[in-house]
Amino acid sequence: MSHGTEPRGGASQPLLEREVEILAIHRAVDDLFGAADRTVATRRGGVLTFAGSPGIGKTTLLGEARRHAADRGCTVLFARGGEQERQVPFHVMRQLIQPTFAAMSEDARRDVLGTWHSIVAPALGLTAAPKGPTAPDPQGVRDGLDWVVTHLTVRSAPVVMVLDDAHWADAESLAWLTAFAARAEELAMLIVVACRPDEIPADAASLRSLMGRQGTRPHELASLTTGAVARIVRDTLGENADDMFCRECWAITGGNPFEVVELAMKGRDRGLTPHQDNIPQLRDLASAVKGSGLIDRIEQLGPSTVRLAWAAAVLGTAVPTGIVGSVAALGEAQAAQAIDQLRTARVLTVLTGLRRKEVVDFFHPLIATAVYRSIPPGVRVAMHGMAAQALVDDGHGAAAAARHLLEMHPEGDPWVVQQLRQAARDSFSAGAPDAARRYLARALREPPGIDDRAEVLFELGSANLLHDPHTTINQLRTALEEPKTEQSLREAITYRLAQALGHTGQLAKAAALLAEEARRATSSRTRLRMQAEQFKWNSVRVDEENSPARSRLLAQFAKRITGRGLAERHILGLRAWDAALRGESAVTALEYAQQALDGGMSWTDQDFGFEVPAVVALTLMYCDQPGRAEELFNSAVVDFESKGWRGAHLSFVYTLLGYVRYRRGRLAEAEDFVRNGLQIADRIGQDIPAQWYAIGTLIETLLARGNVTEAKKVAHTYKLADGFPQAVVYPDPQAVWGKLLLAQGRIEEAEQHLTTVGRRLDLRGTRNPSWSPWQLDLALAQVTHDPAQARATATEAVARARAFGAPSIIGHALRVAATATDPARSAVLLQEAVEHLEQSPAACELAHALIDHGIALHTMGDPHQAAQQLYRGMETASACGADALADRARAQLASAGLRPRRLYTSERDTLTVAENAAARHAALGLDNTAIAKEMHTDAQSVSELLSAVFTKLGTDRPGLHRALEG
0.90 exceeded by the pTM? Predict the structure, then answer.
């Protein structure tokens, strides 16, 4: 559809009694240019809102804002909500952005939008919706729109964004605008919004918040006084208008500016003398300005003109004249004549659209509403059908026609079903799943033919999956019961239904469904795929009846397959994960993980999901290969972002990247990643899996950093202890809660929870302390009151860790075991723990073991070796960001009378091998290019190495020789 690029027609009227509002506009625009020195740093944007009843002058005031901003050299973006377009996704955003890109070629648009093109271009109507099974999620599109508008603001600053009739804005645009408004001030952008507060939809709470942002009230426009009304009347009808006549104008209109101007204009058209003797005629004219009187006046223009007004009301804002005439069933000449009549009557105005075509719009929204409501119901429905057909025929596509199809009565029309399904696909591709659900639900009511019904149910169920999975279950079960369903469709329905059951915690039903459908399948590949899905859902069931049996069956399957297809590779990946959970040899787990990865795995295959690639990556992490795990998760981030999946998928991956960093001892980075993941999860909703994962990982990370208070705050905010999820989550939420209780000194409670975790996990056969170190935390709780029991618990954990064989968990278990034994034995265990951890990537756990070993050596009377271990532990803990652990080492050094920092005999000791080599080459007089050649690297890398050298040695290039030799 076209969008008008010019203000609505009509003679401009002076803005009376709006001085305060105009001053606010001028000041806000002035702020965009900063103080007198006009430095960028002093520029300030913001949000300016106006509220008022229909006809009170909001549009005129916003017109003044646009004019003033343009006169000052601002880039002005303008949009208007439409009463008939509220269900058209991104209708407002397209008005705001399309004019900027309208004159560009497709290549130029791609260049400007960069990697965001495929995500935001369909939403903005800049390109056709791409075909394919994947589509961006709403958050991904909103993030893309953030980038587009930010880029535009930086490039074309200062920018003023104006939205009129915001109460009629579509939900997708409104969701973006209300979230983005917080950035207006930092971007030096002014957002100006006007709406009718009494007509804000009940589900548009974000708009109410925007109107009262930061506790400020919107500028509420008041009715005009008698003096202002008299000024308008005399400007229009002549200075001889008497006071009684002017006062009557005010009384009739209530001081509503639109009605005052229209009444005065009608009086002028009729040649009415503005004298009190003509007040009766004035009242007759007033009835023709609005409501039934307005409709009577239009009807007097003839049936063809009435039909064209109806067509324009049905089609909405800024529609090409040709389409309006077609829907009105008028020839070109008749349509042109009708438009001229309606223009003269101040009902319609003609604008120039983006494609340089003439488009029609109503002179005021009040007129459009009155005309639309005056159309007989049967005629209105029929005209919506004609509008849908005309839009499709004119090349505007199914998405443009869809809102009209929603207004039609169901008649079993295959064309309607086809267009609604296409509109749903387009909406999905544009990141507007809510609109897709509306279209598909309406298609189902048409209804579709018996051959298509299962497919429509499947599409609708898939659309509802993330929004309303319980409804999805009912729709997909109905789809499975349809008599005419092709086998391939039946399989797709089964997989999606299993996902819905899994997402609603009905994991047993998901597995049972897959087992039943596998028995019906005639293809061995299909049965294998369904078996893979069964394994996946059973692996996260807390209530699984016989986990060991499932593990044995999985192991048998994995022995017989080679990873030829994705289903086989998923089974191999699940076998690797199961081996890690059960505490089998890390070598075995790694072998299966590698087989799963060899043929390639997809993060964005919606049928298979991303869960198996994620657990394969985590298997690598538990087996002490976190670097490879990070590589996989980094590729997931790239894949998700390229698809516009910036919701739950991205939340999971950020959290799991944080978990990997936590396990490596890079705690500050871990906290940053997990907080990002939690922030995304919070935007999606409460009590969702992405949130459970992030909460547990964040608490673990905070505890490792020694920030017990903040960890407690997180647990309280998200009500961690109020109920644990009925699915397998890692780290285990109840185990995390037990660890937090232990850190707070609530020993008895911690012991109860950790014991419960142990019974639950042992029953499932989950025995690997690397996956859940509940035994190690339980031993630390027991050692405070029952050292013998703690020793038994820790000994069992050490045995399990040795069976798994990863150095990091062996070292961790040995460190804990050392707390429950005598000092001499403790020192031996800690020495072994250090030796194992030195062979692992677990830096924070190494720091812990070094410090414990140093303390044990000091107790044993070996202060020199104790100091060495304490210094190493303190430095490692500091590098990890484990502040409390570093403070503990520092305090121990101080109590032993040692310096809080190690004294190096030379700062040369702090140089890395590469830094030392670069420094020695530079000391010999080689420049960076020559050094790069000697070291087989590039000049930039040499520059960075030497920068580190200069910082550490406290010298510049000429002083290098002395610093290295001195």
Answer: no
